[in-house]
Each structure stands twice: as structure tokens, then as C-alpha cells.
Amino acid sequence: MSGLLDETICAIATPLGEGGVGIVRISGEKAVDVAASLVVLRSGIRLDSAASHVLHHADLLDPTDSTRHAPLDEALVAVMRGPKSYTGEDVVELQCHGGMVILQTICEALVRAGARLAEPGEFTKRAFLNGRLDLAQAEAVLDTIRAKTAGSLRIAQEQLRGALSHEIDAVRETLISLLAHVEAGIDFVEEDIAFIPTAELTAGLQRAHETISRLLAHSREGRILREGVTAAIIGRPNVGKSSLLNALLKTDRAIVTPIPGTTRDVLEEVLNIRGIPVRLLDTAGIRETADPVEQEGVRRSRTAQEQADLVLIVLDGSAPLTEEDRSLLRETPPHDDQKRLVVVNKTDLPIRIDLALLPSDRPDCAVVKISAKSGDGLDELRDRTRTLLIHPDFETRETVLVTHLRHQTALQRTLEAVTAALASVDTKAAGELIAMDLRAAIDALGEITGAVSTDDILDRIFREFCIGK
Fold first, then answer.
1. Is residue 418 part of a domain?
2. Cβ of 213: how many Cβ atoms within 10 Å?
3. Domain harbouring 443, CATH code
4. Which one of 15, 77, 216, 421 is most buried, by most CB atoms within 10 A?
């Protein structure tokens, strides 16, 4: 890693395209020297003498222009000396006009001056390697960028401030202390010296068990709030699936006609339903058909139905149940976590459907009546959707949330190891066995914050970042 950190990197830190302001970021031991090759401060002060963490008005000059009379752009320049910077290294940010030509030209000039273009996530990776962030906080940086709702943004910000890391570190320190006492006892087993009473060892393990269990208890909700869910709208043709999509989006996204089979492919949109990011799929009507194009649409509808976390089964409330409706209602979810919501549409018309035939008593299914045309019942649909996906008693402000599968898996391994250690203590097993379980628990927790990490884990995490972050 040392060779990697010896290099000075640069990248465009703002999104591609036109904007009022564009930012080029430089980080590394020679960041100031590299930036000085094209930065001339209006104050006349040399860049290497400029005050840190202050914006300086500057001209950006083309280093290839020997006359130095043709500025590339004017800019605001910030020098941030390490370790008080995002990466922990010397960082320079050039804030100029947000056109791609000028930003790319600046990066090309910086590369000629000795920098290299940054890899995706390399600035945040350096922040981790230099101890500015732990691994859970680094992941929260990406979660902050990708947040789709105010709730997921708040959770990401809490993790960025270290809420989860503090919980993990506290448990890990407890287990390390217990391990030290157990190993001391192993070293002096012949002298029959007990460095920690059995009751104290058991109490420490039980506290760790309770904390890990609490974090795992709401991991499903945490992942839903961070990642969102996929919801498939299914039903036979002309029951109002596309109308429901349009009503929820409050726009005419899908084509709606009285002709059955209008929707031939799966339409996809993302929206916020009561704080949950929902990837909503409007599917083709499911029915027997000889039309090969419609058959492919039905096949895609079935695929979307199988892969969805939530299935909205739309029925026409103005007509009796058909055999196609009954078939959809009878189907068993393809996996245990799939929830179902029966949506009785067209309640603005006289109701002819027999509501007594609908499955209203299943814990993974609910029934709601709506009119996609008038909007009646849509608020109840949103409420029922959240209730099906998130436990009604769940409140995000009451607990630190686990939002990543990687964290959840590591915590599950920790819980198993602590449980095994408790069993070993209870059966008066050899100290070596207890120590082995404690080490497994400590290592699993260390994977979350990066106290224990491998290049494979780091590469897998940081390659998801955009370049410039």
C-alpha cells in the first residue's frame, strides 16, 4: 500500500456535463507542487506559502504556454494540508467553471506535472488507509451519495459520523479484554490461577451477545431503508396496472388505453413510498395468448413477479373475479421474504367483486381498495406497503441500524462465535476453546470497521465509488 500512497492523484470531482462550478481534486505528497504548475494566486503569494483551508482567487495558466499570458480559467483554490483533509494527505481543490473541456484540460495539465488520474473511490480509500475513516464510515460516504430518501440519507449520515462503528468498537474492545484474561489463564493453567471469575466472563459475553442480537434484530429494516425494494405490479390485462403506476408517480409514465394488452414490456420507475425507496415494475397483463410478442411480455411479467420483494396483485373491482384472478391469488410466493398486497382497483365504479374471496388474513398479504383514476385509497396503499415491509413498531431513531449485507453477515458470525464461547464457559471447556471462539468473534467484528481487512474486501468496496470520490 505504501507505493500507492506515495503517488499524487487527481480527478474531476463533480458530475460529468455542464454546471456552474466544476471541481478538480488533487491529493498526495506532491499535491501542492503539482497544482502550482498551473495555479497563479491573484494575491501574488506562492501556492506553497498559501494559508491552509482558505479559498484563494487564482488564475489557471496553461503550463505549455511559454508566454503564460493565456489563462485557461479563473478559479477559487483551496489548499488543505494533511492530516486535516479528507484523505489525510495534502489536498488541493480547484473550483473553476463547470465545462467538461476546461476540466479535462486541467486534469491533463496536472498529469503532465506529475500526478496520475485517480481510480474509482481512491480518495476515500486513502482516507481509510490514512486513518481518517474506518471501513464502515467509508461505505457510508457512498451511501450518502446514493441515498434516495431523506430517511436513507439520515441513516448514512449517522454511520458516517461513526454511530455503528462506536457500537462495534465497544463490543470488540470488551471481547479483546476478555480474551486477554482467558489467554493469561491458559499461560498459568498449571498454577491454577484464575485471571477472571467465571461469572464475570459470562456476564461480558452475555452483554456482547445482547448488543449483537440487537443490531441484527433490525438489519432487515436497515437494508430495506438503504437499498429499497422491488415491487412488481401484476394482474390480468386492463385491470389498471399502468394507471396505478401513473397515479403513484403522479405523471403519465405508462400508456393507458381501453385495449387489453397495451403494455407489452416491463416499465421501471423508482419512487419514495413512506421513506422506502421502491423500484416499481409495471408488467404486461398475465393471460393465455397466441400473440408471440404478448407471450414474451407475459414471460417477463412472471420473471419480475418471481424476483420482487413485494407483489401488487391488481384486481378490477368493477367486475367479478375471473379464473386468471383466482390463479394469481392462489399462487405461493417464490421465497419467504416476498410480501403481497391485493389492490382492488376501480372503486369509482359500482363494486361487483366479492371481497370475501380475497386473502385478508395472511400476515404476508393485505387488501386495499383504490381508484387509480380518482386517487382514492392511494394513501392507504402507501401505508399498507410500509407496514408490510417495515415492522409497525420500528423506529429508525431508536437504534443504530445495520444496512449492509456485509455487516449483517459479519455480525451473524460474531453472534455464533459468542454463543459458542458462552456454551464452552457453561460446560467448563478448556480455555483454548473459549479463546478460539473469542478470536473468531473479534476478527468478524474487525471486518466491519476495517480493523481486519484484505485487499479483496477493499477492492470490492471501493470499486463501487465514482471517480473523484
1. yes
2. 13
3. 1.20.120.430
4. 421
The alpha carbon of 212 is separated from its chain's Cα centroid by a whole number of angstroms, namely 21
pLDDT in tens, 260-310: 444 445 678 888 998 899 998 887 766 666 566 666 776 777 777 888 899
Whether the bond between 363 and the residue before it is cis, its omega within 30 degrees of 0, is no
- The upper half-sphere exposure of residue 416, i.e. CA atoms within 13 Å in the direction of its Cβ, equals 9
User: CA 196, CA 63: separation in Å to the nearest integer?
Assistant: 68
b (16+ CB within 10 A) / e for 308-341? bbbbbbbbbbbeebeebbeebbeeeeeeeebbbb
**8-state DSSP, 16:** S
Q: Find cell 410478442 and name the residue.
A: 293
Domain boundary among 98, 133, 168: 133
Mean pLDDT is lowest, of 88-102, 166-180, 218-232, for 218-232
C-alpha span between 452 and 460 (Å, rounded): 15
Question: Three-state DSSP class for 339?
Answer: strand
Q: How far is CA 360 from CA 94, 138, 305, 353, 433, in A?
A: 60, 44, 20, 14, 51
Separation between Cα atoms, residue 147 and residue 247, nearest integer Å: 24
Same structural domain, 240 and 376: yes
Query: Does residue 308 sit in the same domain as residue 381?
Result: yes
- 160 closest CA partner among 187, 186, 183, 132: 132
Measured CA to CA, the distance from residue 265 to residue 93 in angstroms comes to 46
Mean pLDDT over 48-69 rounds to 83
Q: Is the pTM for the entire model greater than 0.85?
A: no
> Is residue 372 domain-shared with residue 238, that is, in the same domain?
yes
Lookup result for grid cell 394513501: 379
Residue 204 makes CB contacts below 8 A (sequence gap 6+) with 174, 175, 177, 178
Domain co-membership, 270 together with 324: yes
Number of domains in the chain: 3
Kindly report the backbone phi and psi dihedral angles of residue 403, in degrees, each rounded to the nearest multiple of 5, phi listed first: -120, -5
Distance CA 23, CA 270 (A): 29
Contact present, 213 and 415 (Cβ < 8 Å): yes
